[in-house]
């Protein structure tokens, strides 16, 4: 059985590569070796290498484990946090109430 691969657009591939580079930079800033991160994340060295290169074939769980080891797992809460397009689409689907125009009051008339 052949394995299906997802089509990754160039802009998405670039984003993954940048994410991998940020994870690698975070690892190096913490002075963690690849072996340390692999042991703590329970992933193999080739998998960590793929994560740090932004390989789209790596399961998101592996990215999550690396984020956890680096103390960056809370950053996941920022993904798709502000869904501007989705909110606009949702707002457009809301029913719009239409009111009949107000009748103008004759001059001098007050509520009371």
Structure explained in plain terms:
The structure is a single chain. This protein is mostly helical. The protein has a domain of 62 residues: 434 Repressor (Amino-terminal Domain). It is built from 5 helices and no strands. The longest helix has 20 residues. The mean pLDDT is 88.
Radius of gyration (Å): 26 Å
User: Portion of residues in helices?
Assistant: 40-55%
Distance between the termini: 82 Å
Put simply, the count of helices is 5
CATH architecture of the domain at 10-71: Orthogonal Bundle
Corresponding CATH superfamily of the domain at 10-71: lambda repressor-like DNA-binding domains
Percentage beta strand? under 5%
Structural class: mainly alpha
Strand count, sense and barrel status of the largest sheet are:
none
What is the quaternary state of this protein?
Answer: single chain
The CATH C-level class name of the domain at 10-71: Mainly Alpha
Shape call: elongated
- The CATH topology of the domain at 10-71 is given as 434 Repressor (Amino-terminal Domain)
Question: What low-confidence regions span 5 or more consecutive residues with pLDDT below 50?
Answer: none
Number of strands: 0
Mean pLDDT: 88
